[in-house]
Amino acid sequence: MITEKSKNLIGEEMLSLPKEMRDAINSFYWEKMSEEIGRKYLLNENEIETLQLETASFLLGLVDEDAYAGNIEDEVGTSKDEAKKISEEIFQKIFTPINNTFEENIKKNMPNRNPNAEQNLNFILSGGDYSVFMEERNKS
Amino acid sequence: MFIILVGLFSPLAQVNAQEDLKGFCVTSSYNFIRGKKIEIAAEVKNSTCTNGGGRWFETLPEAERDKAAQEAAAAATPAGSTPFERQINNLDCDYWPPTWFNGCLLKISYNFFFQIPSLFLWLSAQFFDVMIDLGIKSTVTSDSGFIPAAWAVIRDLSNIFFILILLYIAIRTILGLGGHEVKQMIAKVIIIALLINFSMFFTKVVIDSSNILALIFYNRVDVEVTSTDGIAVPTDAALNGGKDISGAMWKTFDATRLITDKNIKLLKTNIVDGKVTEENNLSFSLTLGIMLFAGGIMLFAAYAFFVSGLMFIGRLLELWVLIIFSPFAFMSWTVPKFASIEYLGWDAWFKRLISTAFMAPIFMFFIYLIFMLLPHIYEHGGGVKPIFSRGATTTILGAILGILIPAIIVMSMLLKATQFAKKGGGQFGEVLLAGAKIAGGVALGVATGGTALLARGAIGGAGGFVANKAATGTNWVGSKMGKWGNRLGVNKLASGLTSVGKATQQSSFDIRATGLGKTFASKTGMSMGGPIRSIEQKNKEKVEKEKKRADELGVRADEGLKQKLNKTEADLQGLLNANSKELSDLDKLITVRRQALSDANAQFGGNSPQAEKAGRDLNNYKNRKKALKTGANYAGDIDINTGATTTTNQKDYASVNVGTYTDSAGVKHARTIDYMEDIEIRDRKHDIETENRRRRVAFAYRTNKINRWSKNLTKWGTLGITNGFDLGSNASREAAHAIIMESKIEDKK
Fold this sequence. Notes:
- The complex is a heterodimer.
- Chain A is mainly α.
- Chain A has two domains: 4-109; 112-140, no CATH class.
- Chain A contains eight helices and no strands.
- Chain A has helices at 4-14, 19-26, 30-40, 45-59, 65-77, 80-109, 117-125, 134-139.
- In chain A, α2 crosses α6 and α5 packs across α6.
- Chain B is mainly alpha-helical.
- Chain B folds into four domains: 3-76, no CATH class; 111-139 and 198-424, no CATH class; 434-473 and 483-530, no CATH class; 560-704, no CATH class.
- Chain B contains 29 helices and 13 strands.
- In chain B, the strands form six sheets. Chain B has a three-stranded antiparallel sheet with strand order 1-2-3. Chain B has a two-stranded antiparallel sheet with strand order 4-5. A two-stranded antiparallel ribbon of chain B has the order 6-7.
- In chain B, β4 (225-226) and β5 (232-233) form a beta hairpin.
- In chain B, α14 crosses α16.
- Chain B starts with a strand and ends in an 8-residue tail after the last helix.
- At the A-B interface, α5 and α6 of A face α25, α26 and α27 of B.
- Chain B: Keywords: Membrane, Transmembrane, Transmembrane helix.
């Protein structure tokens, strides 16, 4: 199981992510799911914790997609095939759904449907700078 | 010349529109030409006017008065001179005072944009009327003496085929290959051998049927032909029995109506602050605009009439050929393989006969529909529906719309009818249209194809290589110069060279595949062109194009950065291959030992000695694999029973590397499997991505240059009060943003 210390560390790093991404990650029980996947592939407690840390690193954007399977192989200590299978399952069950939710959150929040008068004025005076509509969203 | 005179002889004749007028006097005077028609006061006598050489008109409603004045003016117009021509003739075209630009340009434009299109229209309209008349009259076919003669030759040739077919049937019967099919063929041969002599008759029956059907619609088309003196005359007298269909259609949207006296007067009239003033001459822009508008309408109509007429010639020729080859088509029906012969076989022949013959009634039905519609879109007299008028007065916009809208409706319907004509017109119609295309296409194809082959080898290979090398060097300079690279155009030069390299290596050097070639083909094929794209669609295409262009600017396979990555990957693969057996074995052992540990945990519990033993065993293999991948010294296994260190399986993997790698901080590292997988390849890819990003951003800034310049200039222009205004196109702005953000193009459908 992932330790409290690791959990806090990951929590702190998560704060640096965009709100839409944080919401998407928090909407999934990724720790529990990665633990289940680790158990399925007969990993012990330490190995599962390492797997969760690698998964968290990926979610935080610290690890590339290409390197994820290799990291599981090296850090968790699995065979190449096992690492590949674990990686594929985690992508399917954790990363892809989180990514889809993230995209939906972005689409849902992107257009500022109710710009205020000041934003409209700024938009006209700026000669068409759409970023003036984004300020309100960033504040929230 | 005649004029309307006002205020002759006495103060009684002063202009006063408010008085109750009894009549007005028309006589010759310069003033009328200048458009100064002035009404005469009540006290002016008829005799006073006529004694002065004028013509007296009783007071009439304004419309009738205008009409009378126009009639008087028209009577005074020299033969062949229209009101618009008089306007043009009035223009000066001198060096001094300098009137050559306006005056001469308008005179030249009049000839080019008005006179020539009207000539084309006249010719094509005559052509159209004659072709329609000829096309649906069977007499042209029946009176052609060469058709029976040519038909007889084909019939005799086809009769020879009957002998060959009978021989074929006989041989198959002798060899025992005959069966049901042969018996059928014998029956068919006997029937067709009799009917082939009536093949021309049967074909003519089909053609006459279609012509009679077409004539039903043709005869219902009510066309009143007007002679030059304005008197309606019987159609037969005017067009040798034919009908002036094109004339009747043209009357609906007659563009020359724009240049009648009435409309010219409208155009010259200005209303400023409620005060009506009248200019002496039409303005330059209005005159040119009228010419272009009328000329455009005339060319459009000329095209529609010409294409329709041409297709009727095609139909006529096609029908002649169908009649001539009808014996062969009949003969081919006897043998299934003959029946499917292209163009002459029964299947193709019959299909073409029906489609070609019945093209005429379909076309005439459309013409009939158009003529049913004409009275609804044309109002005799004014020629403009009241919806385009402002109250009782026709506006100039109303006049233009009154011409444009009927023109679009009538000509669109005519072109729709022509589409059927094109389909039914058969091969000859297409041949007539495409004759030049085929001849020119073959010659150009041989020439351009041969040239393309040579150019592709010579320029494409060597030119592409040189350009790519030059682009690599320029990109390097650009990366070293930072933002100055962009300002001095180094990045632009690099991307330009990349384009040259790509274009030269990909191009077929075939002008036929270029936009120019396609345009040429389209134009010579009299194509009306594809659908007009919307601005949004064009913008989207531009964004996609720019983004694609930006993607193409990425590091190519022949550049140093990519080659370094390739070398690293090759080195890693070499190292993995050299140690593949040991790695594979260790992987298998790890899998097996992991299963053993899981079993021990399940059977004896996680803290049991058996589980500890299995755990140590698994760790030994994991550590060995790790040592192999990191190039470390594996000190030996842990005793699985006691947990003590041993030297069993001790092995130093220090040699498992391919030299050293110096990182960005200048530190040297052994290039082990682990290091190359985790660090070196990642760094190489990162270098490429950084360079790609730099190039994309540089390209995006160039794409959006107008926007940035306009923003800076307007910012300076407003002394910094505003942030500047972005005057560039939305597409450039969006493209630049998409390129920088590396975003996908959003599909807004």
